[in-house]
Fold this sequence. Notes:
By secondary structure, the chain is an alpha/beta fold. It has helices spanning about 1-20, 30-40, 45-65, 75-90, 100, 105-115, 130-140, 150-160, 165-170, 195-215, 225, 245-250, 260-280, 295-315, and strands at about 120-125, 145, 215-220, 235-240, 290-295. It starts with a helix and ends in a 6-residue tail after the last helix. Keywords: Membrane, Transmembrane, Transmembrane helix.
Amino acid sequence: MIVALLIGCVILAVGIALEVKANAAMMAGEYFVKVITKRFHGEFGYVKLGFDVTLVAIACLLSLIFMSGIYGVREGTVVAALIVGPIVHFVSPYYNFLDKWITDPSLRQDIALQQNQHTIITIAREYGSGGHLLGEMLSKELGIKLYDKEFIRMAAQRSGMDEQYIVRNEQSIPSFWLKCILSKNSEQPLESSLSSDDVLFVSESKIIQELAARESCIIVGRCADFILKDYPRAVKVFCYSDLQHALTRCVQEYGIPRQNAETEIRRINRNRIHHYEYYTGRKWGEPHHYNLMLNTGTIGLQTACQLIKGVYQQYSLQPASK
């Protein structure tokens, strides 16, 4: 009986997830949950859990009031209310392969034609290696835009979040399945199934994809090397530095007190490692994922800039993919 109950809950959850994915004809209960999810930027599976538990509680209360006992609500009802929502939360990301069938074909074609026309430089960096300054130098040298802090404003506009919230949480957002929903060209509304924390990361990821389709540019951080891992014209750079040069840069350029600099370097690098590996499932700084690994502490930013410029120009001469 227990096995049959669990199988039934899984079948129900799979059906609900498909219903929400299709976003066409929905049952009243699921549509109500979706409206609440969209209004309060919640996650569909967990809102569904709260909704089901609330209905069970109301059913028990009304049964006690009008029938002096609990009727029609048994163990299976309670179990289903508790586990169907979390199962929906878990299985929903795996339905993104359906996007190629339910997204407008003409829209997919337009996006595909726009891609691969531009050369993108992504810069991942250890704190104190001068990655942002290197991006500024490249922007002036190559005449293309640099996107770093601009992502905060752009993500705020896209997600409807407060910019200060993004500044505080940009590298500490908890979620274990975000990488499953970063399928390219997905046109499903972000707020339909994500919490507010999840929306931030996905918003920045979508912005990166749109920038790559729109213009040649430089992107600092934001797991851009992973987001564009299949983009043939992405020059992926990782900047690192020995501790002494990093300390000097933090003190002289960032204004961090000498006694606090090493602690700050280790803290920020630890956050970046966690953030990157959490979402990508890949090791931060792994050489196989980058085109250039540059020790800016020993070769200097000017030399690093010229090296990247040479690779950028080489990539720009490659014919666009069809």
